[in-house]
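Example record

Each entry pairs one chain with its bound ligand, 2-deoxy-2-fluoro-alpha-D-galactopyranose.
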Amino acid sequence: MNGVWHAPGRVNLIGEHTDYNEGLVLPFALPQGITVEGERRDDGLLELHSGGLRETVELAGLAPGRVRGWAAYPAGVAGALAEAGYLVGGATLRFTSDLPSGSGLSSSAALECATALALTDLYEVKADRRDLVKVAQRAENAYAGVPSGILDQSASLLCEADHALLLDCRTGMSSRIPLNLGDHRVLIVDTGVRHALEDGRYADRRAECEEAARQLGVPALRDVKDLAASLSLLTDPVLRRRVQHVVTENHRVEATVGLLRAGAVGDVGAMLTASHLSLRDLYQVSWPEADVAVEAAVKGGARGGRMVGGGFAGSVILLVRRAALPAVREAVGAAYAARGWGAPSYLEAVPSRGAARLS
Ligand code: GAF
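Structure tokens for the complex follow.
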């Protein structure tokens, strides 16, 4: 038994650092992602190949901490599938990617989701996609050691072409929001800056949010209803900033959905920029190359823009009228050149389908 599967990367249109606060997110899947060619094997081994690297992992006794590096992601999926009671066996998996790794477009979630689909299909295990989201998240949290939420895995497994996915990260309920961009385009600017979510700053943000929720006496920051009253209860200015971001970001997701439903796609630009400023000033996860890209792009005619993903590195998305694309790229390029930075790379973000079997 063999086959080929593909799981996409994502951009999150809006709703950043809300998933682990049990809030709202609005991602869409990209055409780019991870493709895996897989075949069953009966010796209880996972043989993993990627870009000239090869790792062999024994499925028996697989547990968090046993596998390190890139192989922890696919091996973690096999481990998490077993923990969840899905009986899969050995396989040879060959991964290829057309997603720039570390660019904030979620290549690690795509790697997990491609593995989850391949292993369950190879062993004819019926699994609900929402359960596979949790399996993939468990692989990332426990086996790869990254305390991420469910945004990226949900986007990779649940999105549909031409739609964004409105996901309530508390209930797991989702709905597909048509993304009719009209004469607008979503342009990804890869700032070229790289870092790993394991470096601790992402985990720090999570811990700050949990501490704020504890001090406010709510289960999660999702439950903050009266922002002004809640801010007055917190004495730590850092926690106040984090709460302000999370609460207003959830409102921006709802407002963005309203604008999309009303066909006012251009006005979503202002939401993106407001989200970026909040991530920069309140959540403090932006980085200079992202700030310069957003500012230069908006001055150069973009409708708005924001950093995407966990922060500190990776990509920015810009909402731009098609006719303004050359001017916006020129403005960003000139701002980078003026600071002596190398030119960023660009990719159009086309809302695409979620993970699927290709053959
Ligand atoms: C990263 C994480 F993996 C997501 O779960 C999410 O928290 C995101 O950062 C920030 O919105 O991509």
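The chain has a mean pLDDT of 97.
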